[in-house]
Amino acid sequence: EPKPVPTLVVDALTVRFSGLVALDNVSFTVAPGTIHALIGPNGAGKSTCFNVVSGVYRATAGAVRYAGKDLTRLAPHRIARLAVARTFQNIVLTHGTVADNLMLGRHSLTRAGFTSTALRLPQAVREQRRHRERAAEIADFLGLGPAFDKPVGSLAYGDRKRVEMARALCMEPKLLLLDEPVAGMHPTERVAMAETIAKVRDALGISILIVEHDMGLIMRIADSVTVLDFGRLIADGTPERVQRDPAVISAYLGT
Ligand code: ADP
Ligand code: MG
User: Fold this and answer.
1) Which residue has its alpha carbon closest to ligand 1 atom 24?
2) DSSP string for residues in the chain
3) Which residue is closest in CA terms to ligand 1's atom 16?
4) Ligand 2: distance of its center to the CA of 10 in Å?
5) What digits encode the pLDDT tens for the residues 24-42?
6) Residues with Cβ within 6 A of ligand 1?
7) What CATH number has the domain spanning 1-83+174-255?
8) Ligand 1: which atom is nearest the Cα of residue 40?
9) CATH 3.40.50.300 residue window(s) in the chain
10) Any idea which ligand is nearest the CA of 42?
11) What is the ipTM of this complex?
12) What's the gap in Å between 1 CA and the centre of ligand 1?
C-alpha cells in the first residue's frame, strides 16, 4: 500500500546573504496532491526558498518541515531520500541518451550493490531491467517515448527540459520541486508543459512546488499561490484571489 503524500511546511523562513535579506520571515504550506506556485519578480527570493527546501542553501532562521521531519539542517541527499526530487532552473541536459539520463534518476533507488551490478549477477540484471521498464513508462507518460533511445543533445529544447523533469520523476518523488520549468520555451511548448505538470499531479497524486515567472501559466494550473517581492510574502491564496490583489499587480507592473 502506498504511503500518504506528506504536507510541506515552510515556517517563518529567513535567509540572509551578507547584508542582503533574500527571504524575510516567509511561511506557506503545500497541501498533499496540490500544485503550489511560488511567484514574484526577478530577485524576489523564489530560487532561494527552493534551495533551502532542497537543502542546497541554509536557512538563517525559521524551519522547513516535511513528513514530520525538520529538513532545515539536512543535506540534499538526505532530503532526496525522503522522496523529494527537484529540477534546476538553468540546467539543460547534454550528455547520453534519454534512457541514460533517466537511469541516473533511478540510481538512488537501486538496491543491488556496485559489484553485483558490475558482475551482472542475475538479481542485479533483473533489477536493472525493471528500472529500465519504469524509466520507459515515465518517458512515455511525459511524451518522450519516441525519444527514449535518442541522444538528449539531438532533442528540441522543450523536450530536453522534459527529460530533466522525467529524471526527477524517476526518483519516485512524493514532492516534486520545479524551478522555472518553462523558462526559455516557446508559447506552444509552455502550454504543453503546463498540461503535463497538471497531468503529473492528477495521475500520480504527488505534491508539486513550482517556481515560475510566467503568471499566466501559474494561473492555469496552480491550486494555490504564494507571491514574493524583495524577499517578503506579499500575497498567498488561490490563483483567482492572488491575481486581483493590488500588491501583486503593483509588484508585477513595477518590473
Ligand atoms: P528569484 O529566484 O526570485 O529571481 P533569488 O532567490 O535567486 O531570486 O535571489 C534573491 C536575492 O538573493 C537576489 O538579490 C540574489 O542576488 C540574492 N542571492 C541569491 N543567491 C545568492 C547567493 N548564493 N549569494 C548571494 N546572494 C544571493
Ligand atoms: Mg530564480
Assistant:
1) 17
2) -PPPPPPEEEEEEEEEETTEEEEEEEEEEE-TT-EEEEE-STTSSHHHHHHHHTTSS--SEEEEEETTEE-TT--HHHHHTTTEEE--SS----SSBHHHHHHHHHHTT--S-HHHHHTT-HHHHHHHHHHHHHHHHHHHHTT-GGGTTSBGGGS-HHHHHHHHHHHHHTT--SEEEEESTTTT--HHHHHHHHHHHHHHHHHH--EEEEE-S-HHHHHHH-SEEEEEETTEEEEEE-HHHHHT-HHHHHHHHT-
3) 43
4) 18
5) 999 999 999 999 999 998 8
6) 17, 20, 22, 40, 42-48
7) 3.40.50.300
8) 3
9) 1-83+174-255
10) 1
11) 0.98
12) 41
| Ligand 2: centre distance to CA 177 (Å) | 13
**Global confidence as pTM:** 0.91
135-181 pLDDT, tens digit each: 999 999 999 999 999 999 999 989 999 999 999 999 999 999 999 99
**Nearest CA, atom 27, ligand 1:** 17
